[in-house]
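agent> fetching stored inputs for the calcium ion docking request
agent> found them:
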Amino acid sequence: MRHTTSTATRTAGPLALALATACLTAVMAQPAQAASVSTWDKVAQCEAGGNWGINTGNGYYGGLQFSLSTWKAFGGAQYAAYPHQATKQQQILIGEKVLAGQGQGAWPSCGPAAGLGADHADPYPTPSASPSTAGVYRPGESVFYVSNTSGGLAGYAGFGASGDVPLTGDWNADGKDTFGVYRPSDQTFYLTNDNATVAVARKLGNPDDIPVVGDWDGNGTDTIGIYRPSDQTYYLTNDNATVAVIRRMGIAGDTPITGDWNGDGTDTVGVYRPSDTTFYLSDSNATATVSHTVKFGNPGDTPIKGDWNGDGTDKIGIYRPATSDFIGAAKDSDTVIYNKRFGNPGDTPITGAW
Ligand SMILES: [Ca+2]
Ligand SMILES: [Ca+2]
Ligand SMILES: [Ca+2]
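agent> prediction call returned; pasting tokens
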């Protein structure tokens, strides 16, 4: 693996920004009265010695020492006749309602002692993965165009230069994908966190390598790597500098494709084989296993991936250049669950959660 450790100082070409017309960041409403599981654990430790199944016969039950009348008044009967018969999560869910209705004083001593009134965290937040949508990079303009979940234009930004390969990823772990490019002429990645300013400029790979990006170590940050067609090998970094993973995958003629195929938060390697229009995907970057095999698409299609339904798992798909169609499949299936036409002939497809 040949790569330099010097930081490139040139910029990524024209950086004039025509910024997104819509900010799609979803803001979760914060409950006025709520507390984390760890805070509820402190209450239970104080009230019941941490025993969620306790019934001493004193008229108070379970980890949060509800009376039966309180348990019923706040809906606990949907879970169990008595509090101590319900699960810890069910007791906490009723505890949330009591906290919202009566405040931390419902546990006169242990509530304040645990900081119950000052926590405000949602103990069981709903997973909030954002679905991926289609986008394109228009090489002649060096402009990214991205779509919303309805398939309409969500925004656009100029970045990169002629001949660049477009990339998208969450380079700073803020939950939003932003743009980047790989410049084959100098084998350098230029990444931006605001779709305008170069935040990372890093040389990696040789001419003819194919750039890949992903969260190879599951820490929330996408980093760079390359796939070398000549030896069918991935070379991946976790810090945009040092190659941490060297992994052979595929055969000559395959196209690299990477994603979180099992929803565990770590992106792993795969290939798309045009000769049999089949994806071969691994859930590991360490061992040479094929975990998922899906036949999808037609000759001439370009493989893509995305979390089309926002459930936290990447699925395969294809981009059909002749018609500018993005067609995404369900997990481990050829059932189409995403189908949008976006961009123009000649565009390069990208996908992401903007
Ligand atoms: Ca980001
Ligand atoms: Ca990472
Ligand atoms: Ca994974």
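agent> quick read of the result: Residues 88-102 form the longest helix (15 residues).
agent> awaiting further instructions
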